[in-house]
Write a structure and sequence with these properties.
The protein has 206 residues and is of the alpha/beta class. 26% of the residues lie in helices and 21% in strands. It has five helices and seven strands, in the order E-H-E-H-H-E-E-H-E-H-E-E. The chain has helices at 18-27, 41-47, 51-60, 107-125, 149-155, and strands at 9-12, 33-36, 64-66, 85-91, 128-139, 159-165, 193-199. The chain has a seven-stranded mixed sheet, sandwiched between helices. The longest helix has 19 residues, at 107-125. It is globular.
Amino acid sequence: MHYRSSDMILLVGEGDFSFAVCLANAFGCAPNLFATSLDSRDEVILNYSRGMENLKRLEKLGCTVLHEVNAFLMSQDPLLRLKLFDRIVFNFPHAGFPLGFRTEHDKVQIKHHRKVVRGFLSSAHDMLTTNGEVHVTHKTAYPFNRWKIEKLAKKVGLCLVEEVEFYRCDYPGYVNKRGDGFKVDQSFPVGRCSTFKFRKPILVNI
C-alpha cells in the first residue's frame, strides 16, 4: 500500500467507494482522507449494491465524502480549492462512451480518454503540496498504452517519479467498477496495470 494516514489524500472518480473504504479501514480513522465521485449520493446508492454501506462506513471513520466533483474542475470546487494534498489518486480513469458504443481500440474513444486524464492531471497539479504526488492506476497493455499517460503528465508540468505494478489483492475489499452503462456495478478484468506516480519537478537553486 502506497498511503499513510498522516498524508492528506484526495481520491478522485470513486465508483462504489470501496477503495476509499479499504484505505479508511487500514488507517483505523480517516480525517485526512477526501473521497470524491462524479455521481451524486443518490446515484451511488442506486447504482452500486454496496454504495450505501460503503458511504456509511466512511462517515463513521471520519472520511470527507464529496459528490458531483468533476476531475477537470476539482481545483475550483468550493470545498477543495483552498486545500493541498500529499497524494491525489485516480484509479482506472475512463471517459465512458459519450458517443455511444465504441471499442477501446477506437481512435476517437482513446482521444476522449486522454482528454479526461489530461484534465485531471492539470487540475491535480494545482492541488499538490511541495512534495505531493499524483497517482494514476492504469492498464498497460494494448490499447490502453496508447493513452500515453506519461506524455499527458509532462504537458501539464508533472514528471514521473516511478511506475509500480498494481495488484488489487494489496487493497482488501477494493472492487474496481465499470461505472458506466447498464453494467455499472460490475467489475472488469484489470490485466497488467501499474500505478504511475507523478510530481512537480524539483527546482534546484544554483
